[in-house]
């Protein structure tokens, strides 16, 4: 059977345009939570409805093949329906995280995504511009918004991995935005993907993010939406819970919440969070099995994980990103 094309508006989704202009004016950031499965998506919707927060639900290439692209489309549609039935009008955007080719971005646009990222950050500047521009040209025809990236983040996320980071060069951002026509730009200011963001020696604390680079970028593209990847805080209580129930996650460290709050008040309009959700789920499942080794009903332990994820997301929306109450 041939794959059906569908426009995101038919699924009740929105692109990022209005979300970002409101976030810029209101000095908060839109949360972009990654998901791969039912419980994660239920938790994101429930928490965002309860906090009245706009939300970007995002999937990586790996998540798309894990969940199945058709299944994903209907999950996103179900997410919107679930929010509306709860009496909520929160805007929901379905976004491709780290698209690595024109073909993947096109396929997502054709199957109902309202926003895509084309990540050409590992390419030489001119090639990044050419690839990003090609995606923007296709996306425009469907009113889909596009995120580009300049500068490389270290760390691992599904297929995307880099050993070393390269900070964004502020002198390149204006030219990139002009030449490509992107709607938002991810920059590299010291965050990284995954749960091991900083290698700290005993007694050392996390180095501050490079707000000087962010300020320089803002000056060159005033009022333009900036995106922060690798923004999990790797909450110590989850790492401790995981380690106390048999896990081995020594040395896991993330971005302190006060730094994210500062970023959210700037031109940073979208903050990506994946690892924190993974940690919350893993911590609760480990705890559940340790305390009740006889249990074998997935609803029990996944239900506990989902509950924790709801608490975590509400906390992020209310006290870190400031998106609560802004739907
Ligand atoms: P974390 O690994 O810090 O959650 O970052 C996720 C991310 O940036 C997705 O693109």
Provide structural commentary:
Its cofactor is Zn(2+). InterPro entries: Aldolase_TIM (IPR013785), Class_II_FBP_aldolase (IPR050246), FBA_II (IPR000771), Fruc_bis_ald_class-2 (IPR011289). The model has no long low-confidence stretch (mean pLDDT 96). This protein has a single domain, classed as Aldolase class I (TIM Barrel). It is built from twelve helices and eleven strands. The chain has helices spanning 17-26, 38-51, 61-67, 69-85, 102-110, 125-140, 170-180, 211-220, 236-244, 257-264, 275-291, 298-321; strands at 30-34, 55-60, 92-99, 115-118, 145-150, 154-157, 160-162, 184-187, 192-193, 226-228, 268-273. The longest helix has 24 residues, at 298-321. With 327 residues, the protein is an alpha/beta fold. The protein is globular. 1,3-dihydroxyacetonephosphate binds next to β3, β11 and α11.
Would you kindly provide a brief summary of this structure?
With 327 residues, the chain is an alpha/beta fold. It is built from twelve helices and eleven strands. Helix 2 runs parallel beside helix 4 (69-85), helix 2 (38-51) packs parallel to helix 12 and helix 5 packs parallel to helix 6 (125-140).
Layout of secondary structure:
Elements: H1 17-26, E1 30-34, H2 38-51, E2 55-60, H3 61-67, H4 69-85, E3 92-99, H5 102-110, E4 115-118, H6 125-140, E5 145-150, E6 154-157, E7 160-162, H7 170-180, E8 184-187, E9 192-193, H8 211-220, E10 226-228, H9 236-244, H10 257-264, E11 268-273, H11 275-291, H12 298-321
Parallel strand pairs: 1-2, 1-11, 2-3, 3-4, 4-5, 5-8, 6-9, 8-10, 10-11
Antiparallel strand pairs: 6-7
Helix pairs in contact: 2-4, 2-12, 5-6, 7-8, 9-11, 11-12
This protein binds 1,3-dihydroxyacetonephosphate.
